[in-house]
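queue> holo job accepted (1,3-dihydroxyacetonephosphate)
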Amino acid sequence: MLVSAKEMLQKAKAGHYAVGQFNINNLEWTKSILLTAQELKSPVILGVSEGAGKYMAGYKTVVGMVNGMLEELNITVPVAIHLDHGSYEGCLKCVEAGFSSIMFDGSHYPIDENVEKTKELVKIAHDKGMSIEAEVGSIGGEEDGVIGAGECADPNECKAIADLGVDMLAAGIGNIHGKYPDNWAGLSFETLDAVQQKTGDMPLVLHGGTGIPEDMIKKAISLGVAKINVNTECQLSFAAATREYIEAGKDQQGKGFDPRKLLAPGAEAIKATVKEKMELFGSVGKAE
Ligand code: 13P
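queue> job finished
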């Protein structure tokens, strides 16, 4: 069932667990994530970056694919299609295309401009019954061309953005997109705690979910994180399983070159990664 992310995240925040946002790249990704969410009775958010949206032949194609799968695969758990790190224009396009949720990443603007643009988009999204995420303090690293320096958010700025009525807030707390370097200082729980104190019931979003140790994930959830984004980890498991298949020469045996066979181990690997994350985040069984 395609829904806005608002209700599932409010429930997660109140219930002290987190809903996973898993970014999609193609049909295999989408199918693996949806089937796992259904099997585990977990709500789920499908993240679509602007680059991935373009790769998948546009936002309307994505919405058509997801809606088709929800019906044909009998997916009854709550599912949101969410624009990840959207520009102002990208947000407007996704509202048009039938997404159920958007993220406006105005973290690279001066705070006044971030507030102004977020405010406009909150109204547009809410008029359509969609949820909206905003960001304060950038997430480090690079994702699909969006590059962040990784500075920690100012809790007062978080409050200013939260007060605009966004449904979820991404606050930079030392998290990074992609793999974490060996010398990573870890998440700043001090910042997270201060942000949560200023923003109350607001579901907080932890980007850069790949490679964060389990104890840090659990602590972040205990401090108000209700949505955790995972992208790179599914890519790594897909690539490893595909590599193993090819290195074993299986693509050269019988009809092993058939894309339905060639991509199957990768698709299964994505399912295993998503399952592991949903169990860690505590969202299993929450859609029953
Ligand atoms: P990772 O690729 O590090 O898992 O980050 C995903 C993310 O935050 C998407 O916005």
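queue> Strands lie at 19-23, 44-49, 79-84, 101-104, 131-136, 141-143, 146-148, 168-171, 204-206, 225-230.
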